Recover the amino acids of this structure.
């Protein structure tokens, strides 16, 4: 069976989706899960784009034990130098350089001739090759490029040393038949094509990202670039879980395999959702809440007799647990620790003590603790010891015939700040009070509240978007008390902004 390499770009292309930006710690947590799931290459960012991107790539490259870590770079020497600096500590570093090849991009964006683009691409690959052996080249907007020109540039970059050549459908324009033809054309016309691996990178603007990737694999591509939950620019990228499960479920059609541990798929999807707050639609293939739900009576009847009547793959195969493990008041440290490790978290002993305390507090307020509760707790508490602002206590006075007032005490680097404010309702009053405690201009852009699980004692999870000194940042908070979760979400946003500021300094 032919091995297909899975190149995950959740932390680069995926992070470019609105609302999906992550802190270094969040990216590292996601990277650890991606490594556990078995991705072959992990594109961790675009090193030259920002100091934060650079540090995230470097941190991830140094932390990965087996996974190859790549950084994106334009075909410019300074981009490639920066990419190399970021990935060089990794076990299998890769530089991924690109230049646009379509006439539309060459004329309107790069203002370059086709010949100049080939020269730049070749120079970039050679420059990267001085540093390391694993160099990927992408012909941006390949699917709207002249096919014979693509043949020329692909031949030239392979000659210069590119070991992977990516033919991206940057704007999600191609169709399965056309893409099959294009990949076949390159296989047939590029004389040295056997010396490199063909990669594909498809966007979902017409909803065909996965179908196009599938067609390309059939034509001989052996690396697929994709993202968890299909996040990415505009309509997103081909979804990792869909292409992997298609290969897995239809091995009869396609004699290929990949190294993904499919039982880690659900976990990866959930973790990404928790980190970014961007949920998948309920009917999303493989990882949507309804992907394995059977509603109609006829279907249920069939399922009860024989699961394969309406089920082409099992929920267990993607790691969806049928039985929900619950923890509660009587669960000890071991049970909690085991569960946390199973959920893919790596936490320090001190951090664990803090989580255990928070867990016990939660048990006093809520009878059963589901995975969702634990996930929410972990997501808001892990890494918390480094934060600048922490809630100590608050008092709110509110009613329908009075002005709401809030007193909030915040610990700022070990010093208590007490502020008082009035507002339109309890949450506005609390937010006005906290604005006085933080030295920045803070605007609330979006606010959502949702119950984490079913039941009257469920925790309320608040997700919000702030604009701090003009920069957008998201925050989340969770508590059985919705005013407390609102305050926590606000502080979470402020703390994330502080972390980002430090990273850029
Ligand atoms: Mn892309």
């Amino acid at each position: 069976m032919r091995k297909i390499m899975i190149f995950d770009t959740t932390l680069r292309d995926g992070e470019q989706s609105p609302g999906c930006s992550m802190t270094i710690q969040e990216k590292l947590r996601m990277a650890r899960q991606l490594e556990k799931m078995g991705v072959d290459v992990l594109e961790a960012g675009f090193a030259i784009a920002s100091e934060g991107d650079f540090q995230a790539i470097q941190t991830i490259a140094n932390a990965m034990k087996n996974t190859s870590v790549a950084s994106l770079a334009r075909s410019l020497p300074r981009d490639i130098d920066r990419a190399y600096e970021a990935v060089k500590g990794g076990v299998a570093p890769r530089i991924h350089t690109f230049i646009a090849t379509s006439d539309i991009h060459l004329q309107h964006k790069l203002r370059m001739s086709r010949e100049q683009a080939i020269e730049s691409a070749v120079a970039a690959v050679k420059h990267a090759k001085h540093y390391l052996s694993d160099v990927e080249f992408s012909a941006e907007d390949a699917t709207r490029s002249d096919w014979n020109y693509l043949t020329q540039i692909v031949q030239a970059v392979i000659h210069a040393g590119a070991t992977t050549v990516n033919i991206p459908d940057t704007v999600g324009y191609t169709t399965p038949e056309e893409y099959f033809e294009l990949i076949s054309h390159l296989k047939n016309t590029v004389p040295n094509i056997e010396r490199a691996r063909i990669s594909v990178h498809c966007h979902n603007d017409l909803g065909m990202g996965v179908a196009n990737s599938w067609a390309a694999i059939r034509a001989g591509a052996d690396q697929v670039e994709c993202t968890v939950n299909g996040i990415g620019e505009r309509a997103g990228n081909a979804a990792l879980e869909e292409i992997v499960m298609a290969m897995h479920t239809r091995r009869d059609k396609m004699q290929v395999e990949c190294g993904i541990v499919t039982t880690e798929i659900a976990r990866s999807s959930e973790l990404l959702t928790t980190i970014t707050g961007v949920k998948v639609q309920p009917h999303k293939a493989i990882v949507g809440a309804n992907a394995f739900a059977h509603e109609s009576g006829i279907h249920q009847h069939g399922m009860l007799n024989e699961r394969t009547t309406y089920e082409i793959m099992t929920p267990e195969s993607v790691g969806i647990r049928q039985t929900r493990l619950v923890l509660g008041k009587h669960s000890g440290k071991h049970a909690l620790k085991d569960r946390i490790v199973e959920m893919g978290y790596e936490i320090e002993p001190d951090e664990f003590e803090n989580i255990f305390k928070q867990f016990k507090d939660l048990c006093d307020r809520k009878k059963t603790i589901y995975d969702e509760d634990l996930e929410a707790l972990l997501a808001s508490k892990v890494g918390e010891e480094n934060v600048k602002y922490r809630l100590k206590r608050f008092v709110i006075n509110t009613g329908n015939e009075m002005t709401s007032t809030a007193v909030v005490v915040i610990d700022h680097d070990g010093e208590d700040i007490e502020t008082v404010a009035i507002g339109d309702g309890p949450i506005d009053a609390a937010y006005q009070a906290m604005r006085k405690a933080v030295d920045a201009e803070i605007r609330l852009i979006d606010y959502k509240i949702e119950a984490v699980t079913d039941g009257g004692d469920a925790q309320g999870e608040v997700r919000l978007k702030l604009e701090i000194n003009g920069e957008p940042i998201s925050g989340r908070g969770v508590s059985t008390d919705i005013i407390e979760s609102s305050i926590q979400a606000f502080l979470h946003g402020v703390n994330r902004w502080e972390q980002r500021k430090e990273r850029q300094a």
Remarks:
- The chain is about 40% helix and 20% strand.
- Residues 482-504 form the longest helix (23 residues).
